[in-house]
Amino acid sequence: MIDIKNLSFNYSRKKALVLDDFSLSIGNGGVYGLLGPNGVGKSTLLYLISGLLTPLKGSCLINGINSRLRYPDSIRRIFLVPEEFEFPAISLQKYVEIHAPFYPDFDYDDMKHSLSLFGLEDNINLGALSMGQRKKAMMAFALACNTPIVLMDEPTNGLDIPGKAMFRRLIAEKASAERLFIISTHQVRDLDSLLDHIIIMNQQQVLLNASTEEIQKRVIFEITNDPEVINSALHSLPGIGGTSVMLQNKYDEDTRLNLEILFDFAFANPQKLSTLFNNPTNTEEL
């Protein structure tokens, strides 16, 4: 379990805080979407969880241990895939030879399986890859490390449409109740069918921390041109082919999650969102 308590951080004392007295709890398994606008601190939070940054105050505990201590037994259980990175100009096989020993559960066959889905071979020269190919190679290696915690920062940036589809397939294959994926993104449409838990954050607080099952019990999502439905919606977004609306789920209906409108609602009406999910029995005013 990840327990973040009153975390504050900035990159320079002359600049504003990136995170300010921020707290969050995350369970042991599942696929979590970490959502928020650009600059809100999503990437910073992942680096703090991994122990690569030191907070000004507060702590991040992973199963009760402060991640910043970087104990060998702790860091081998976490893999962070950053948004941007460079590979050395060596073969992937050499890269595996150097780095895989740090991860006792590394599985070469797992990596080859992921690479094949991405259309890559295991003898590629890492220094000659495009941005999208680098992402694919790194994700194949990361998944093969079989760490209990996998942190991914904007993993679909730079991927083509087939690459995004294969990424979703691989995460679905690897997800389990014992393995935690935290995927930071602002491209919500890329991941809406993959996530089983949603976190929406700003610098100071978590606006929403709920399972997709809980969200779908509370609200339904539709596309409509009916003015009466649009006017009665909790939130609406005009679009081609109709207006996307989010409504209270009063009749235990089951609709597909629309992260785009949920995300927009969280920042347009944070108090209503809090009432809806934290005080579900007191929603008449909504």
Radius of gyration, CA atoms, in whole angstroms = 20 Å
Tell me the number of helical segments per DSSP (H or I, 4 or more residues long).
Answer: 10
Overall mean pLDDT score?
93
Helix % is 25-40%
Strand order of the largest sheet: 6-7-8-3-9-10
* Largest sheet report: 6 strands, mixed
**Regions with little confidence, pLDDT below 50 for 5+ residues:** none
Decide which structural class fits the backbone.
Answer: alpha/beta
Q: How many beta-strand elements?
A: 13
Task: Note the overall shape.
Answer: globular
Strand percentage lies at: 25-35%
**Gap between N and C termini:** 34 Å
SSE run: EEEHEEHEHHHEHEEEHEHEEHH
Secondary-structure topology with pairs:
Layout: E1 2-9, E2 19-26, E3 30-35, H1 42-50, E4 57-62, E5 65-66, H2 72-75, E6 78-81, H3 92-99, H4 108-117, H5 131-144, E7 149-153, H6 161-174, E8 180-185, E9 197-201, E10 206-211, H7 212-218, E11 219-224, H8 227-232, E12 235-239, E13 242-248, H9 259-268, H10 270-278
Parallel strand pairs: 3-8, 3-9, 6-7, 7-8
Antiparallel strand pairs: 1-2, 1-4, 4-5, 9-10, 11-13, 12-13
Structural overview:
The protein has 286 residues and is α/β, with parallel strands linked by helices. The chain has 10 helices and 13 strands. β7, α6 and β8 form a beta-alpha-beta unit. The mean pLDDT is 93.
Summarize the structure.
The chain is an alpha/beta fold. It has 10 helices and 13 strands.
Fill in the keyword field for this structure.
alpha/beta, six-stranded mixed beta sheet
